[in-house]
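TASK: fixed-backbone design
INPUT:
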């Protein structure tokens, strides 16, 4: 952290979040209270957590700094991706990844261990059912038209009746109450993302919704890797670090993985010389 601060000459906030939750939110607020920055580096690593708390953390960052660079040594997934939307630019390694914003829903039954699934799964299944019905309708109408010589309107009417009867059981499998629950869950991440981009990044409503809708709906799984190329295709700026600093991030990724607790710490450029002088002073005293 100190080497990055020394090289880039700007404060760096370490956000190693084992889980994005209320405890982490409080610590971020306490760490940055009363501070304001022209430029701030945020080294972020997290598997995710609460979208509500992620939004609040991102708001704090947006209120405290005019320009934010998000540094991701390895991963910032789910709620971590939501926090990342507050960034003006990104620094990524070859293995760095963000993830989709499809909210995870707790499907735990009774006393079972917590079990989460993507709220998007039910929607993807519903989408496939819709595609299947439309394809069946087209194929049936063409087949009836070809075999019977009927008019197009008559063939289509028979095809609609056939598809309605055969597909009703397929749609009976979907739970409308769950669909509504999942729709609300997806709306949480979507609306938080749109608000961050509109309020702090100067995006129009249309621009913000296009970006966030892509992050919520257009990936096949919650674990899908959003890398440098994908991020740039969405219009985000990806910076390059000097090779020495990039290698430092790469070499220390395992240390970040081994840390089991959340770590939140602010490193300031003006603190570095004092720290180095103190270290040298102690060394001289011990030599004497």
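OUTPUT:
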């Amino acid at each position: 952290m100190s080497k990055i601060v020394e090289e880039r000459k700007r404060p760096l906030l370490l956000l190693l979040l084992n889980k994005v939750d209320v405890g982490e939110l409080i610590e971020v607020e306490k760490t940055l209270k009363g501070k304001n920055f022209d430029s701030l580096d945020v080294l972020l690593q997290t598997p995710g957590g609460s979208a509500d708390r992620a939004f609040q953390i991102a708001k704090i960052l947006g209120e405290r700094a005019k320009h934010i660079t998000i540094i991701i040594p390895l991963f910032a997934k789910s709620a971590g991706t939501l926090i990342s939307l507050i960034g003006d630019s990104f620094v990524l390694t070859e293995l760095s990844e963000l993830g989709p914003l499809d909210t995870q829903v707790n499907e735990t039954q009774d006393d079972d261990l917590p079990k989460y699934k993507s709220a998007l799964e039910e929607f993807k299944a519903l989408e496939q059912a819709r595609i299947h019905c439309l394809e069946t309708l087209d194929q049936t109408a063409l087949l009836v038209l070809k075999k019977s010589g009927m008019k197009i309107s008559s063939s289509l009417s028979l095809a609609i009746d056939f598809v309605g009867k055969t597909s009703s059981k397929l749609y009976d499998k979907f739970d409308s109450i769950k669909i509504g629950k999942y729709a609300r869950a997806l709306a949480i991440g979507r609306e938080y993302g749109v608000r961050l981009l509109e309020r702090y990044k100067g995006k129009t409503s249309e621009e913000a919704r296009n970006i966030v809708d892509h992050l919520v709906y257009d990936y096949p799984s919650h674990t899908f890797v959003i890398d440098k190329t994908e991020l740039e295709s969405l219009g985000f700026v990806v910076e390059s670090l000097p090779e020495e600093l990039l290698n430092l991030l790469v070499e220390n990724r395992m240390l970040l993985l081994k840390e089991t607790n959340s770590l939140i710490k602010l490193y300031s450029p003006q603190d570095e010389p004092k720290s180095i002088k103190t270290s040298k002073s102690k060394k001289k005293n011990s030599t004497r």
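COMMENT: The first strand starts at residue 12 and ends at 16.
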